[in-house]
Amino acid sequence: MFHRHQKNPILTGADWPYPAHTVFNPGATLLADGTTLLLCRVEDRRGISHLCAARSANGVDGWVIDEKPTLRPDPEKYPEELWGIEDPRITFVEELGKYVIAYTAFSRGGPGVALALTEDFRHFERCGLAMQPDDKDAALLPRRINGSFALLHRPNHHQMTDQGAHVWISFSPDLRNWGGHKLVLSARKGGWWDANKVGLSPPLIETTEGWLMLYHGVRGTAAGCLYRLGLALFALDQPERCLARGDSWIFGPEAPYERAGDVGNVAFPCGYTLGSDGDAINLYYGAADTSVALATGSVSELLRWLSKHSSGSDSL
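Given the sequence above, the corresponding structure tokens read:
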């Protein structure tokens, strides 16, 4: 259902205007003038990540990359960013007239979920930590649900309980105080492709049938972890209620640039853009924690597939 672009990988560290080790896991959005903006995770040669914007008129090539980091870690004011900031997901919130970036802030305490607001990807207002460690893979919904902002995220406390890592939703009146935490998608058990650990990939896609989630499942193998992509659908007015969940994965590492790199066998999307028809989708993903790649597809085709290959719930 997703088709790799022939120009993949579309961005690598060699494209960067300053020294970079790897470039991957970009958030994505369309700006008001139709420009595609990717907010890429850039790992420097110390091993610390920051975020840098790349812009393109067609979302494929001709990228104009910021000459210096767009959003750097600021551990003096935000100690949760001591070891870097990673894996941004971008949501435009019309009520605020701003883009809300959910990203992973990494420090001695582990990874936590932080938020930042911007109008222009030049100036940023940090909100600080929304979810304390260990937590990551977060994205905001574009509008309030029953009067509250809603944030998808993935706590990771299974080392203590051996119960797996699952996707949750939390609610806030102001983007700073969070509560009403609810489990929305559990990792399955046993031999399933998404057993033991799942996480949100890009932000949810609002459709007439519900919120469409593209999520990653992590399967441990003798050769290491294998990251692949699946689908689930949630009720528009109750995004904690799962309506359908695909039985099998739909996209995984197959191409050489996905199989080999700093972390092999990883296809990890953090962002997408939709075409003017609201159906064509450009999915931007990190390949092997090393480069940025693009796959194209159709939202309606994803929904059709899900209606035919769904368990009907997330209870397996």
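The chain has one domain: 3-308. Try to locate this feature in the token string yourself.
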